[in-house]
Design goal:
The chain has two domains: 13-229, Alanine racemase (TIM Barrel); 244-367, Lyase, Ornithine Decarboxylase, Chain A, domain 1 (Beta Barrel). The protein is built from twelve helices and 19 strands. It is an alpha/beta fold. The structure holds pyridoxal-5'-phosphate (PLP). Pyridoxal-5'-phosphate is lined by residues 36, 38, 84, 165, 206-207, 222-226. Its cofactor is pyridoxal 5'-phosphate.
Length: 368
């Protein structure tokens, strides 16, 4: 990996291949693979990642919103795309762009049927979301008879899959709850298929579902964070490779005298003489203000430099009193060795949040 000259997110597509192959090795050959590329492929680059997954042989993609699916179609992505959380206002666009909706309530089901009919669709593929305990989106066991009646009497739609989402698949202390979600889902899906008279695909596993509950892989799995290199557990992290590395450079070095302050609100007053480096990355780039005042850190010449004072919009100052370095030297915010997990843990959040926060302003480059 080359030295960067400005703040850069390096996206390693070889690591993506590695993670995809690792996950595939956990699946039966008949289980389909859906790559979750919502939120700019977890803050990296949805188009590059989606195209690469298509090239690797993924069966499906998923995004959260219609707009994200449209961006993939505009870029020439041809895989089927499940939209996990669409709004009816976008259903016409969704159909125009061959995206497939998750239908999670009677309101969205009815509106989708209406619009698909008006657009003279027949057997338009839809995916029915079942709520098995996350209590976020989805139909319940009591709803499925009415849902199947609607599906049977409206030939504008065809139920391609029935799915649910696990609430705590990464937490083995909650395995009883998770196993209950899985068995509830299987039962609801069985009754639903009988009512429908055909068998849609079934899927319930996200990353930690895939890794912790192999008996629940069913017809398809939906992997997000693992594709990007995190397994929500050190046991699995060791087999995965983070695809994104966030790097920057030292813009300027300052010698600070005891008693002087650093940055906005004078949030740090030097207790002794110290040395700081100013780095061109701030909260507008996705490094939240929460990381200020020593909570967050970067690495310079492999040594840890805590953030001094508040995070600014476009920069941070870090404490390099004990680090031998020069202006122009490389700064690692996270990479393979100093992972986004470690930085996230410093403020009690998770890798998902720090990755998806990296803003559009940060230059992307690709290792192919
Ligand atoms: C985001 C999402 C996933 C992916 O979850 P990971 O833990 O990142 O693998 C899967 N399914 C649904 C419904 C999601 O919203």
């Amino acid at each position: 990996m080359s030295k960067v000259l400005e703040t850069t997110l390096e996206i390693d597509l070889k690591a993506l291949t590695h993670n995809f192959n690792y996950l595939k090795s956990k699946l039966r050959p008949t289980t389909k693979f859906l790559g979750v590329v919502k939120a700019f492929a977890y803050g990296s680059d949805a188009v590059e990642v989606a195209k690469h997954l298509q090239h690797l042989g993924a069966d499906y993609l998923a995004v959260a919103y219609v707009k994200e699916g449209v961006a993939l179609r505009d870029a020439g992505v041809t895989l089927p795309i499940l939209v996990l959380h669409p709004q009816p206002v976008n259903f016409k666009t969704l159909i125009d762009r061959c995206l497939e909706p998750s239908l999670y309530s009677f309101k969205v089901l009815n509106e989708f049927i209406e619009i698909s009919k008006n657009l003279n669709q027949s057997n338009y593929p839809v995916h029915i979301k079942i709520n098995t305990g996350l209590n976020r989106l989805g139909f319940t066991a009591d709803d499925i008879e009415a849902v199947s009646d609607k599906a049977k009497t409206n030939e504008s739609i065809k139920i391609k899959s029935v799915f649910s989402h696990l609430a705590a698949s990464e937490d083995l202390n909650e395995s009883e709850f998770t196993l209950n979600q899985i068995s509830q889902f299987k039962l609801i899906a069985k009754n639903f298929s009988e009512l429908l008279g055909y068998q849609p695909w079934l899927h319930i596993c996200n990353t930690s579902g895939v890794l912790n509950y192999p008996e629940a892989h069913l017809d398809m799995v939906r992997c997000g964070i693992s594709l990007y290199g995190f397994g929500n557990n050190p046991k699995y992290d060791q087999y995965l490779k983070p695809i994104a590395s966030l790097k920057s450079v030292i813009s300027q070095i300052h010698l600070i005298k005891k008693g002087e302050s650093i940055g906005y609100n004078r949030a740090l007053v030097a207790e002794n003489d110290m040395k700081t480096a100013t780095i061109p990355i701030g909260h507008a780039d996705g490094l939240s203000r929460i990381y200020g005042k020593g909570k967050g850190f970067v690495f310079i010449n492999d040594q840890k430099a805590p953030i001094a004072g508040n995070v600014c919009m476009d920069m941070i100052m870090v404490d390099i009193t004990h680090i031998n370095c020069d202006e122009g030297d490389e700064v690692i915010v996270f990479d393979n060795n100093h992972t986004a997990n470690d930085l996230a843990a410093s403020t009690g959040t998770i890798s998902y949040e720090i990755l998806t926060a990296i803003s559009n302003r940060v230059k992307r480059c690709y290792i192919k």
